[in-house]
Design goal:
- The chain is mainly alpha-helical and 309 residues long.
- The chain is built from 13 helices and three strands.
- The protein has helices at 11-22, 28-45, 55-67, 72-91, 118-125, 133-148, 152-156, 186-196, 229-242, 251-264, 269-276, 281-284, 292-302; strands spanning 163-164, 169-173, 179-183.
- A three-stranded antiparallel β-sheet has the order 1-2-3, with no helix packed on it.
- It is globular.
- The protein starts with 10 loop residues before the first helix and ends in a 7-residue tail after the last helix.
């Protein structure tokens, strides 16, 4: 069997794509990507019925993609489409078994975080000037993301009851609704206080709250609703564009930067693990991978047997 370009899909595959659109609300771009992957897969099958595909066929398809020289990430993405299709067929009663269920996708090498330099973070945080409600909010968002290392979804989910100014901590609900307390540094506390007092958040409070829970939200949009992840993401990127960081900046890069800078300054890795809300320390260890040059410099300065006479 040989792969060809985009081909017509079997009816079952078209129904799967319709399900992604209607039931799962996937975007046009996402559905188009699924369509390309499945067109290549069905073309490789050479017209065979999808309910007759065996596990060995899926394994051979993975091998085929690898022999084409595709990157592991590309093969993994294609397999997401294939696995999702076969899972759908079983759920809909179109097939009795899922041939892709036990086929392991290729491991994708984990990329190293690319944190900002400390002077770049300073430049970013100093870029929001002014005393209007928008400026106060944006400044508080940036200070909180970098100062606490919280995820963008965690920040948007904050409510007033989660803030403890007296104790200088914020309660964060992470993945799996796991709760953790994160310290608030002075700059973050100051920025939050300026946002929450007169001239800040009260300027965005509507005459009537549109949704339950908005009244408790720490961060509001200009229409008086709880700030969404997309809205917060756009704020970060807009300020980043102003200082020339462009595509290098995202909310997650600020999280990377928080962790990396703490470790650079001697923080214990388990403390950073707790701060970020990582379930496993192996997730946090990615931040300890530093450049060879910096590692050599630290080693030469610190180890008594490093310096050669």
């Amino acid at each position: 069997m040989s792969a060809v370009g985009v081909a017509a899909l079997p009816l079952a595959a078209e129904e799967f794509l319709m399900w992604l659109t209607v039931e799962r609300g996937r975007s046009d771009n996402t559905v188009s990507a699924y369509r390309r992957d499945l067109a290549a897969y069905c073309a490789w099958l050479g017209g065979r019925s999808l309910d007759g595909v065996a596990e060995a066929d899926v394994e051979r398809y993975v091998a085929h993609l690898r022999t084409e020289g595709r990157a592991p990430s590309s093969v993994a993405r294609a397999m997401v489409s294939v696995r999702s299709l076969h899972r759908f067929l079983v759920a809909e009663g179109r097939a009795t078994a899922d041939p892709a269920a036990d086929v392991a996708p290729p491991r994708v090498p984990q990329g190293l975080p690319k944190p900002l330099a400390e002077d770049e973070v300073t430049m970013l945080l100093d870029a929001v000037v002014g005393d209007g409600p928008v400026e106060r909010r944006d400044r508080a968002i940036l200070e909180l993301l970098y100062g606490t290392g919280m995820r963008i979804g965690e920040l948007c989910g904050l409510s007033h009851r989660d803030l403890d100014f007296d104790g200088a901590v914020v309660r964060v609900f992470g993945k799996g609704a796991k709760e953790r307390l994160v310290p608030l540094g002075r700059p973050a506390r100051r920025a939050l206080s300026e946002w929450l007092t007169a001239g800040g958040r009260p300027a965005f409070v509507p005459p009537r709250w549109a949704r339950r829970g908005d009244a408790e939200a720490v961060f509001l949009n200009q229409r008086g609703g709880r700030l969404s992840r997309q809205g917060a993401w756009a704020i970060v990127r807009r300020v980043g564009d102003q200082v020339g960081l462009g595509d290098r900046l995202s909310p997650h890069v600020l999280r990377h930067s928080c962790a990396t800078h703490m470790l650079d300054h001697g923080a214990d890795i388990r403390v950073v693990q707790e701060l970020l809300g990582h379930a496993s320390i192996s997730t946090t260890q990615v931040y300890t991978k530093v450049s060879t040059e910096r590692l050599r410099a630290v080693y030469d300065a610190a180890h008594p047997r490093a310096r050669r006479r």
